[in-house]
Amino acid sequence: MDAKITLSFDEKVIARAKKFAEDNNISLSRLTEYLYSKITHGQYQHLEEIPIADWVNLLAEGKVEYQTKSRGRKALKNAYFKSRK
């Protein structure tokens, strides 16, 4: 069951996140849920321990190129619901 929450972010972060979500055919809500899910399934004591941190740092420095296969919204939706079973 989905529940609604209200979050506040810097406007520039929101704009970038919306663009990222749109480019990956996912809603901003599902992208946020996915990231929270990844973070909370680990046993992390500090932000620096989260595995995505190194990748994000490399990407920010321009050393990494992230490529995915483009999937349609229906395929993403089906994959999401299949993972929830």
Keywords:
mainly alpha; globular
Concise summary:
The protein is mostly helical and 85 residues long.
Task: Explain this structure.
This protein is an all-alpha fold and 85 residues long. It has a domain at 11-65. 54% of the residues lie in helices and 0% in strands. It contains 4 helices and no strands. It has helices at 11-23, 28-40, 52-60, 73-83. It starts with 10 loop residues before the first helix and ends with a helix. The mean pLDDT is 78.
Give the secondary structure arrangement, pairings included:
Blueprint: H1 11-23, H2 28-40, H3 52-60, H4 73-83
Give average pLDDT, whole number: 78
Low-pLDDT stretches:
none
What is the CA-CA span between the terminal residues? 13 Å
Number of strands: 0
Largest sheet: none
The proportion of residues in beta strands is: under 5%
Look at the helices and sheets and give the structural class.
mainly alpha
